[in-house]
Every structure is written in C-alpha cells, then in structure tokens.
C-alpha cells in the first residue's frame, strides 16, 4: 500500500502481482478476458448471447478455450436504445450469479460505469468492475473498495458513456491517457481500493480516432512503465477495420497482430471475442519472451 | 579393469527442459537413469565417461554440458564446457548422485579402430575398478520422419549393435563399418569401438533397458557387467 503515494510523486511503482477475486497473477502472466455480452445489439456478436442459455453456453466454451476472466456487459458501447439502471441490473445480475455458481474460481468482470449496477453485481460475486467509460461515476471506486473488488481505470478522453468521438484532438494522446488513467488510479486508492486490484486501460477507440489508437498501441510501453497492470481491449475494433479496410468479420488477423504487439510491450490483460486464438497469440509471445515453455520441442534435438 | 559399463544415447533432449512443457522421451530418460544407477551401484573406484566428439581429448573432471547451444530456458553460463556426449554423461552421473572420481573422455569421430581400441585399454588401466559410461547413438535414418530421412540400411545396422550388446558379444561391434556408419548418421561409432574393447575375453552379463527409435534415431540403453558385478545379486 505504501508504494502508491510515492508513485504519484513521480517515483516508479514496482511491477507487482495483480489480484482479481481469489486469484493472483504475476507480471509475466498474460490473461485473456472473454467478452460475454448480455445485449441484443453489441457490435460484434449482434445479440448472439442475448439469450441467457446462449450466454452460459459461451461461458462454457471460453472457459474451455483458456479464458482467465469472464467480462459480462449489459450495455453496448455504441449509442442506441436507452438501457437504464434497472434494465442493466436485470441483464447482468442474475447472469453474474449463474456464472459464479457454475465456476466458483473464475474471475468475473462486469462492464459498467454505474455504481448502482456495480453494487448489485459485486453482491453476487463479481470481482472486477470494468469501467470502460473512464470514471464518469465517482462512486464506482467506493463500491470497489467496499467489496474489495478490482477496478479498471480507462481513458475515454472525457466522453460521456455511449458517445462517439467527434473531431477529438490531443496535443499528446499518450500524455492524456497517462494523466487520466493515473488520476483515476490515484482516486481509486484514495477511495480505499486495494492497489494490487487496479488496472489501467488506454481504451482503444474510446474518445480516439484510428490514428490515436495506433499511437497508443505503438507507445504502450509508456503505460507499462508506470507499473500499473495494463489491459487492452482491441478485439475487432474500428481502428483495425479502418487500418486494414476490412468489415467486422474480417478483423481477427489485425486484432491478433495488435494483441501480439501489446503483449510484447508489456500489456497483461487482453479483452477478446476470439478466446482460443488470442490465447495462442499470447502463448506464442510468452514463449518468445522466455516466459512460458513451448508445449513440446523435439525437432532437431533427438 | 572395467567392472561395469552402461550404454546410453546422447540426444540433447535427454535434458528435461529442452523438450518444453511436454516431458517427451520420459521412458528414455528413465532408462538412462536406471542404467547409470546400476553402474554406480557396482561401486567402481572411478567412472569414465566416453563419448564421441570432434576430437579425442580428456576433459577436466568438472567439465559440464553446455546445453545453451541447443536452446532451452535461460541458464547460467558454463565455466568448463564439455562436448555433447561427454557432457550428457557427466550430467547423468550428477543426476545419479555420483560424486566419486570421474574421467571425462571424448573420442574423435574419425579415429581409426586401432586408436579406439588403444583408448579402451587406457581407460581400463586408469583404476583398479573402472566403471564405464559410454554415450553413443545408433543411426539417425530409421524412419521417413527421422532427421536423416529413411535409409533401409539403418534398421539392420542398429539391430546389429543391439545384438552385440545384448549378447555380450562386444567385439562384434568392431565389425560395424565406419563409412556406412557415417552415411547412416551414426554419431557414436567411435565410442562404440571403445565399448567393443572393454571386456575382451570375459563373458559379461548384459541387460537391455531400452531399444527404440521413436524420433527416428536409434537409442539403445543397456548395462554390461562382469558376471560377479551384477548389483542386483545378493551381497552387493
């Protein structure tokens, strides 16, 4: 706990264990956060797991594919039909409870910016509050502290939830990312969140055009150097689509290339639709970095 | 005099972590450990490791395998590196808990038969009771997926090595043709010639612990002992 106040004075934190729920992850472990949407209209899956049985089936699948974290969301990022607190709770809380029941040890994350929702999901077993809209509800950190949950501190460029970037401009996008995410982390610690349960996220495409998302990818080492664990959420996003000029269903290669670069630069958590492929990309990077054994090597050694 | 001999192959993957997370070649490693344990159990005054290498040389007794040339996880630098076959033999002795005197000897791939026989005599004379660990592989052309692709002469070549060792007819190893051995990518020919010269007129007990070519390379693990040295007999 004492390491953090020095960090905000400009001295480096030491890289450390990330605690999520009952589990601890060291700095060389690369975690896959599997996206499970409880929405009828999210951009990639287009409601494939709106049905609760389908959603639970997806949980079973991603667990088999090597997911470390299940990220449950009840509100799409894009603008659209209003989802109020009551409806968001209806979509997420029973499902969080069901996943916790099925998998007592898995890390459960909930993608929400609302403290009312956060309180309800933590009460039924959520371990991580994925505040991808960057701290627009001050009381979210209080809920994380109250339940000893983890908190994601993301950079949304100051945009309100569910809004699109419109002519966003940064003098230095990474400086802004660092400023906002570290401020959120500092506030979280002040609110009583366990510092080993705080993650920072540059939030690709949130409040950023494609150029900005490419730049934060290229400069991700600057975030990693803060020694807060870094999460990246890249999966099938528009910056991949615009960069490669490909529609949503052809963005996996670009997603995996970006995943590998971020892993190489030190990101520790990867939010993804394609769990098996992401796991393989990360395992490959880990083996190249000598942080994981290859599965089986006999060629040329017999 | 040589009282006991163990024969093991010398692939890099004898080193456990070179095969990655999968403990490939478990049975081979186990057989080698057993052979070396049996060798140590005969309580020799000294154990000599003999393996084929680029040249004939006696290595410092504390020389060790420098496996980093073959890859694997990061590991400390080796101060006194020994060539693969000799270094693997030293490693097997270490893993077997042997701390007694040791002689680490390589024998050049291109040594003529006579030089190999001479070396066998020298090793034999180096102590009253010498234990010998010969590190030698068979052919590397046993199957289509073998390192050297399939050569139909490989199976009979390895079979003859196995026959000679399993029957204690070690001098028959002198009959293995050096040129053919080279064509079949036999890396252990010269070490096998040293083995051939060890028991001379004595009729040893032998036991084959492993004989297979699961990666297309002929591996033979065996122990050869003077009859009264069998460590499994009562009183020893």
Overview of the structural elements:
The complex is a heterodimer of chains A (302) and B (236). Chain A is an alpha/beta fold and 302 residues long. Chain A has a single domain, classed as TIM Barrel. In chain A, the strands form 2 sheets. In chain A, strands 8-7-6-5-4-3-10-9 form an 8-stranded parallel β-sheet. In chain A, strands 1-2 form a two-stranded antiparallel sheet. In chain A, helix 6 links the parallel strand 7 and strand 8. In chain A, helix 3 runs parallel beside helix 4, helix 4 packs parallel to helix 5 and helix 7 packs across helix 9. Chain A starts with a helix and ends in a 14-residue tail after the last helix. In chain B, helix 3 crosses helix 6. In chain B, a hairpin with a 6-residue loop joins strand 8 and strand 9. In chain B, 28% of the residues lie in helices and 21% in strands. Chain B is α/β, with parallel strands linked by helices and 236 residues long. Chain B has a single domain, classed as LigB-like (Protocatechuate 4,5-dioxygenase, Chain B). Chain B is globular. Chain B has a 7-stranded mixed β-sheet with strand order 3-6-2-7-1-9-8, with helices on both faces. Chain A: Belongs to the DHPS family. Chain A: This is Dihydropteroate synthase. Chain A: GO terms for molecular function: dihydropteroate synthase activity; metal ion binding.
